[in-house]
Amino acid sequence: MRRWRTASRSVLHANPYWRYRRDAFVLPDGGEGEYYYVETPGSVMVIPIDESGRLVLVRQYRYLNDRVSLEFPGGGMGQCVSPEEAVRKELAEEAGFAAGTLLRLGEMNPFNGVTSEICVVFEARDLTPGALAPDRTEEFDIYRIDISEFRAMVGRGEIWDGMSLAAWALYEAARA
Question: Among 60, 11, 68, which Cα is nearest to 40's?
């Protein structure tokens, strides 16, 4: 496929979490256009599995949809941090666990027409409990769910977070 050429880039807004950008581009046929998108330093998501083989999920309020979501722990990578460091931080902050074993399952882009973000997905095992450490905008309930119940919840539409669903697809592919 023919690539577009970037003519110019600008940042329209920046905050500690992402930048809203505008690129001017040139198509292979010479046509020009503008592309608006969100740029982030990346994110991580973790599928924690306890000693009984149950999945550990967090239940939290999601402002943009004004509803509660049950999902795997995850979050932004921040600047100059490795995916492994970031996923350990998110697992501790959101679920209150440290992982003895981390297995990298793969990468995905959560919304490729809107963000350049790449999310690195891990499986975590050999969990040891610690204290939750959410930031002031976060509140979590921790759930442990059998894999069969998780699959049933996905089928019923009760698990609706797209990043969790994509992470689960990577987990299932690794097990196939």
Answer: 11
